[in-house]
Specification:
Blueprint: H1 12-21, H2 23-35, H3 38-52
Helix pairs in contact: 1-2
Length: 66
């Protein structure tokens, strides 16, 4: 399943699909765009996108059986 941030907002079909899939988050972002400058909103959007980006899990603990 696509993340909210994976949709192409320049594509009307994808924008509509994102709105249908994530209606509350879409409305939140529309309100946020009204309140922030374009630069502030883009900074927020990119930081949120990085937070939901999957990161590889690194196992730093080593299990040792005795």
């Amino acid at each position: 399943m696509k993340s909210f941030y994976d949709y192409d907002v320049d594509n009307p079909a994808e924008r509509q699909e994102r709105y249908n899939t994530y209606p509350e988050l879409s409305r939140f972002h529309m309100a946020l765009q009204d309140e922030l400058t374009d630069e502030e909103y883009q900074g927020y959007f990119e930081s949120e996108k990085q937070l939901v980006k999957p990161t590889p899990s690194v196992n730093t603990t080593q299990t040792r059986w005795i």
